[in-house]
Amino acid sequence: MQIGENGKLETGYKNSHINTDNTADYQNGNGTIWKQDYGKTNRFLYAENIHALYSSYEQKMDRFSLQLGLRYESTNYDANQLGNIERADSAFSRQYIGFFPSGYLSYRPFGCPSIFRLPNGGLSMAR
Predict the structure, then answer these.
(1) How many Å apart are CA 17 and CA 79, to the nearest integer?
(2) Which one, out of 43, 79, 91, 121, has a CA that is 20 to 30 A from the CA of 7?
(3) CB 57 within 8 A of CB 69
């Protein structure tokens, strides 16, 4: 959304959902006989949901550009390492929320195609 002549506000939502089911099957052999290696064999189940809301504002002033943003994120996941005849199951879950601010200051010198940025206090140069 354009705000004034040189300002721009952007907002959005992102949802990510991941399900994985990984099996690792290990065997040891001596050339003729193969035996299951239960110390390494496992199955891992993982489910993750992320919901994120974000907003950013950019203001251009002559050769400078200032951008400020904030993202709110809610994440939860469940993981289950399935056991076998030698190892017990193990599981863990976590839920958390967080705010992630960002800020950029850009400057375009006269006669130079490069942009100098200060992302979160650092300095970088891009073409």
Answers:
(1) 14
(2) 121
(3) yes
Q: How far apart are CA 95 and CA 74, in angstroms?
A: 8
Residue 70 banded pLDDT, cuts 50, 70, 90: very high
Full-model pTM: 0.64
Q: Render the burial of 9-19: b for 16+ CB within 10 Å, e for the rest.
A: eeeeeeeeeee
Residues 104 and 66 sit within 8 Å (Cβ to Cβ) = yes
DSSP calls for 2-65: EETTTEEEEEEEEEEEEEEEEEE--EEESSS-EEE-TTT-EEEEEEEEEEEEEEEEEEEETTEE
Domain count, the chain: 1
DSSP character for 111? T
Q: Which domain holds residue 27?
A: 2-126
41-68 pLDDT per residue, tens: 999 999 999 999 999 999 998 888 899 9
Average pLDDT over residues 84-112: 88
Residue with tokens 């002033």, as numbered in its chain = 61
